[in-house]
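Posting this for the archive.
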Amino acid sequence: MQTEIFKKSKRPNAFIVGAAKSGTTSLSEYLKLYSDVFVPEYKEPFFFIDGFGVRDIKEYQEVFSGHNDEKVIVDASTGYLFDKSVPQKILEFNSDAKVIILLRNPIDVTFSYWKYKRVNGHERLPFRDAISPAVQKFRRTTNFYKTVTDWPPSYWYAARAMYYGQVAEYMRLFGEEKVKVYIFEDFIKSDFLKQDLLSFLGVAYDPSIRFLNENASGDVSRFFHFLRYSRVLRGVKSVSKKFVSKEKQIKIRKWMIKKSTKRKSSHVLSVTDRNHLKDIFIKDVKKLESLLGRPINWKDFNETS
C-alpha cells in the first residue's frame, strides 16, 4: 500500500466500522451536517477489504477529494468490523485514527440483513434455511464465492452479528481511548451520547442538528434506494450540497428516507426464530457486556439471568 502519496492530513482519521444494519448510514448522514466533518458521497469505500470496493490507493484518495480542511474525515464501511485483517491495516494507514462502532441487537441485525438481501433479489432462501449450519458452511467455500458478485461475508448473517471478537480486536489494537462503542437502541434516543461522540471527535455539539433514523423496519424501495446511493448521481449530490442550506438538506433527507422505505414490511421474524437466534447469541452478548464493562439494553437478553 503506497500510502506516501496520500498526505496524512488528507487521510480519513475517523472510521465508522459497523455494524451493518445498525444505523451507520444514519450516523454518517448526521455527521455530514457538521461543518467540521467531511463524509464523502461514496458510500462504504471498503478500501481495506481485499478484492472489494475501492482497490487502489489513488482511487481511495479521490474518494476524499472533496475534503476542504474539515477537522474530521470519515470512512464509513461496515465490512471493516467483521474482516479480521482490517483493524491492523487501518492502524498502519493512520495510527492516530479514531474508531466508532455502533451495535444493534444481533437478532434484529441478522434478520434485517437477510431481509435486505431478499428484497434486493440476492437471497433466494427463506430465513431459517439461509442461517442453517449446512448453508452457512457452504457459503464459506470457493464454490459459493463464484456464484456471487458482492462480498461473500454479507451472506454470513449470524456470524457478522457475533460482536465480541470483532470489537475486542479494535480495542486491543487501538486502545480503549481511541474506540467508542455505542448501542444503537440507546444512541438514537440520547442527546447525551451524541454529544459524547462529537466530543470524542473534537467537534462542537449542535443540538439543532437532528439525528434521523434511516434504519426503518420496512422493506426497501429499489428505485429510491438507487437514487440515494447511486454512484452515477454521487457527483451531482456533492455539487448541489455547496448551494443547498443545511435546513433544506435535512428536508431532502427526510423525503428520501420516506420514499426509499416501504411503510410495511412483507417479512416478519417469528417468535420461534427469534428465540432460536437468542440461543445463538446469548453467550456472545454476555462476553460483550463484560468487555465493555456495562450491561446492554437488548430486551431479548435482559430476560435471561
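The mean pLDDT is 88. Strands lie at 14-18, 37-38, 72-76, 98-103, 179-183.
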